[in-house]
Amino acid sequence: MQSFVRAKLHGIRVTGADLNYHGSITIDADLCREVGLDPLEFVEIWNKMSGARISTYVLYGPAGSRCCILNGAAARTCQVGDEVIIASASYGAVDDVIAHKPRVLIFGADNAVVDRVVYDVFRDEEGRLDMRILEAETGAEEPPRVATRIRVA
After folding, report:
1. Are the C-beta atoms of residues 46 and 84 closer than 8 Å to each other?
2. Which tens digits make up the pLDDT trace of 74-97?
3. Dihedral sign (CA 32, 36, 41, 46)
4. Which end of the chain is more exposed for a tag (fewer CB within 10 A), N or C?
5. Known binding-site residue numbers
6. CA distance linking residue 24 with residue 141, whole number of Å
7. CATH for 2-91?
8. For the chain, first and last CA: distance in Å?
9. Is the pLDDT of residue 130 over 70?
10. Residue 143, Cβ neighbours under 10 Å: how many?
11. DSSP three-state, residue 82
């Protein structure tokens, strides 16, 4: 068994830090649901500003609030305004990640979603593992498009 990325929030800004809370990270429930983060799921958090790395669990915050609040001991690792990457993992075989297609939200100012992508792991014609980053499905009946705008200025 290996550990694979299951869901990811890339570049979301910290909107609060509450040292006296029980612990965890509170994230807008709508954002969690869109990428597939579940309540109480363990996540890794990587602070792009300081390099700090922590592990904690998710609490759903108010839907539509765009909140990202570090609680308890985690509050010491980030400042309001810091950009963080939040990722969850699942354990399984490579065929599990091929079937899952992890979803990623990419954020801009005010925690607005500026891009939605999917990590697509597949086997090429020779059976070798490969991957690409695809634009998230729009609901239209068209083939997936390789994402071209995955970096945020």
Report:
1. yes
2. 999 999 999 999 999 999 999 999
3. negative
4. C
5. 56, 72-74
6. 39
7. 2.40.40.20
8. 36
9. yes
10. 5
11. coil
Boundaries of every domain in the chain: 2-91
CB atoms within 10 A of CB 120: 17
DSSP result, 106-143: EE-GGG-EEEEEEEEEEE-TTS-EEEEEEEPP-SSSS-
Is there a contact between 39 and 27 (Cβ–Cβ < 8 Å)?
no
pTM of the model: 0.89
- Strand 24-28: give its sheet, edge to edge: 16-18, 68-71, 24-28, 53-61, 42-47, 83-92, 2-13, 103-107, 113-123, 129-135
**Token pair 């669990």 is at which residue?**
57
Cα(92)–Cα(70) distance, integer angstroms: 29
- Tell me if residue 93 falls in helix, strand or coil: coil
Please count the CA atoms within 13 angstroms of the CA of 39 that sit on its side-chain side.
6
Catalytic machinery residues: 24, 57
